[in-house]
Specification:
heterodimer, A: 355 residues, mainly alpha, ABC transporter involved in vitamin B12 uptake, BtuC, B: 335 residues, alpha/beta, Rossmann fold, 2 domains, seven-stranded mixed sheet, six-stranded parallel sheet, 15 strands
């Protein structure tokens, strides 16, 4: 792939600059989030609710309860994996908005395995489903990667559009050939055999996908920091033209890195289908691709920050419903809190970048 | 007693969710001492399971997971909490602490088809629906047969959006139907607002579904609609739970039960039509006429229902759950 056009992404440049000044990041982060909670308190007061009570409801039902905490961790699993699927290509200067579609394709491939090889024992079926899930996501990401490596189409557009293609493809399949005859025409596949269910732990919904998340972050960290590949990835991300002149095969890196990222997203899809739904469903992702995208950008694509931000988002998502139940707040009010946090954090970031 | 309810959409949709919400409100005013925990916009997925758990942790003894797709998730929770009662709409699974309820509206669709057949000047009726699943195909057929019973020249143009909630497609479909010359449109989608509003804007008649309150969006073109009134049923569930007499049942009341009925007539509907519909309704109630009265032919002209073939509630139920064809004079695809 000789003539590679690498299109520079101003947003990515901004983040690259910003990484240099990230020493006090956690403190600033905490301050921004506190500001968001402060603004939301005013909204709660306007609704005639007690903010202290609302926040302690969230706290008591998430962090302070073992059930709540187990749900936060369960929610973190797909968020962390999906964030790494964004962060890895981002280090190369690539914007992967296609996590959602890659997750669904992984879920589709893995479901095929579970629905076809029903006689296999769990120790064989589950790794096989994992392989299929990885392959499904990787293939789906390889399409935009190829188009980008050839310099034909920016991956930011192609990955986004392929999300919709993937979801429609799943719908065609679950409304048609794979529709479960036992589900009264409800659009979902038949339930997997028990051997195709990822194990869960301690009577909670925390599942073996947690291992995938931990391994994904750890490998992401070590590859970037400690290997020649990581060095070359960072070199391309830092200055693609210089990297190319130094003989780094940029095109191959684009395809490889996006495919691995897609494969990770596919694994997240496999884990959701296998551990949570036990079947292929068009609702497989509760927007994990998009929330994961936010997590990665808010974390500046840094491995450990991803875990911290995913934790925060998981608390907000699981705690958000509590505001509806115990405070009787409308659904929209819950979304306002999420939006405020994003807004404040992004605004704070823009201020610093502009300086 | 604490009661929990989960809605898949907004309780202000003038449709499926608002009808359920209105039922809960009536239950609240009928039974004193109930605390209601309500959550909207909960997707049909694993999040629903957590919301139910949270409600139970706040003391809920009766849970309404009010969407079909909550079924498996609610069953998981029900298994974990045998002391908590669950009432789930339109499902096909049950357990000792997990009952199902819905109401049969096909008779009403036939009656509304009659009103539509009388109201149309172009002899073209429109039907906007989510999916061509058996229950919906049977509804379209009932509506169409009702229309043909008073107006043999009627055709019914059915559009399936592939979604229960897609205001964009619902507006496009309604406009396309109006462009084709359809002058009475009805629907089975979660929120009838878009179809009814678009019809009103195009100056054509509309027939609602789920919730009578949607008539406010069509002061001129409103004919009538199917409205579900869950209040008495939910009140019974709550009273039984409090009294300790709650039992897992599978309820499907129909015409005459009060759970499902015709909404108020619109101004444009003449008294003669109201009377004709009322007398047909009485014939249904008396059992002298039946909604899927044969002979009925399909789009290819094949005889599908012989005369007096489907006359019992059981036979109707079987037909509704297996119907995979559209009647002669319906224009639309079953796949």
């Amino acid at each position: 792939m000789a003539d590679v056009h690498v299109v520079r992404n101003p947003l990515a440049d901004a983040f690259r600059r910003e990484r240099l000044q990230n020493l006090a990041a956690p403190l600033k982060w905490a301050a921004w989030i506190a500001l968001a909670f402060g603004i939301f308190s005013v909204i709660l007061l306007a609704y005639g609710r007690d903010p202290v009570q609302a926040y302690s409801d969230i706290f008591n039902n998430t962090l302070a309860s073992s059930y709540g905490m187990s749900e936060v961790i369960t929610k973190m699993i797909p968020l962390v994996i999906m964030a790494v699927a964004v962060a890895l290509p981002a280090r190369l200067g690539l914007v992967n908005v296609g996590g959602e579609g890659q997750l669904y394709m992984g879920g589709l491939f893995a479901s095929w395995g579970a629905l076809t090889f029903t006689h296999l024992p769990a120790w064989l079926l589950l790794p096989f489903m994992g392989l299929l899930g990885f392959a499904g996501g990787a293939l789906w990401a390889a399409i935009p990667a190829f188009l980008r490596a050839k310099g034909w189409l920016l991956e930011v557009f192609s990955t986004l559009v392929l999300n919709y293609v993937a979801i429609l493809a799943i719908e065609v399949i679950v409304f048609g050939p794979w529709r479960d005859p036992a589900s009264a025409n409800y659009p979902q596949s038949a339930q997997f055999v028990a051997a195709g269910w990822l194990p869960t732990f301690f009577g909670t919904r925390i599942h073996l996908g947690i291992a995938i998340a931990v391994v994904a972050v750890t490998i992401f960290y070590f590859v970037l920091k400690r290997t020649r590949w990581g060095l070359e990835i960072r070199a391309i991300g830092g200055n693609p033209e210089a990297a190319r002149r130094n003989g780094i095969p940029i095109g191959w890196y684009i395809v490889l890195v996006l495919a691995v990222a897609g494969g990770l997203a596919g694994l997240a899809g496999m884990a959701e289908a296998s551990a949570v739904y036990h079947r292929l469903s068009p609702g497989l992702s509760s927007g994990y691709g998009f929330v994961g995208f936010l997590v990665s950008w808010l974390a500046g694509h840094r491995p450990w920050a991803i875990i911290a931000v995913a934790f925060l988002m998981a608390v907000l998502i699981t705690g958000g419903d509590i505001l509806q139940i115990s405070q009787g707040l409308p659904y929209a009010a819950v979304n306002v809190l999420m939006a405020l946090i994003l807004l404040v954090v992004l605004a704070g970031r823009t201020v610093r970048v502009a300086r | 007693m604490v009661v929990g309810a989960l809605h898949v959409g907004s309780v202000k949709d003038a449709g499926y969710n608002e009808a359920q919400h209105a039922g809960l409100s009536k239950m609240m005013s009928n039974v004193s001492g109930i605390k209601l925990l309500e959550a909207e916009n909960i997707p049909e997925g694993p999040d629903a399971e957590r919301v139910m758990e949270d409600m139970i942790r706040q003391g809920a003894k009766l849970i309404f997971p009010q969407s079909f797709g909550y079924q498996d998730f609610a069953l998981n929770v029900a298994k974990k909490y045998p002391d908590v009662k669950f009432e789930h709409p339109a499902g096909y699974k049950s357990a000792d602490n997990f009952g199902t309820y819905w109401a049969s509206s096909h008779d009403l669709s036939y009656l509304l088809g009659m009103a539509a057949g009388k109201a149309t000047k172009t002899n073209k009726l429109g039907f906007v629906a989510g999916f061509p699943i058996p229950q919906i195909l049977a509804t379209v057929n009932a509506f169409h047969q009702g229309a043909r019973s008073v107006n043999p020249n009627v055709t019914t143009h059915a559009v399936f959006n592939g979604s229960w909630v897609d205001p964009g497609k619902e507006a496009t479909a309604t406009n396309a139907l109006a462009d084709e010359g359809v002058d009475v449109v009805t629907m089975v989608v979660d929120s009838p607002i878009t179809v009814v509003q678009t019809a009103e804007k195009r100056g054509i008649h509309s027939i609602g579904y789920h919730y009578a309150g949607v008539s406010q969006f069509a002061p001129k073109g409103w004919v009538s609609g199917v409205t579900f009134e869950w209040g008495d049923m939910f009140t019974q569930f709550a009273n039984d739970t409090i009294a300790g007499t709650w039992k897992s049942q599978s309820l499907l009341p129909g015409l005459g039960s009060g759970t499902v009925k015709l909404a108020d007539w619109g101004k444009s509907v003449p008294q003669a039509v109201r009377d004709q519909v009322a007398s047909e309704q009485n014939a249904f109630l008396a059992g002298t006429k039946h909604v899927f009265q044969g002979p009925v032919y399909d789009q290819q002209g094949k005889l599908r229902i012989k005369a007096d073939e489907i006359t019992t509630p059981a036979a109707e139920g079987t037909f509704i759950n297996t119907c995979d064809w559209l009647a002669q004079g319906v224009i639309g695809q079953t796949k």
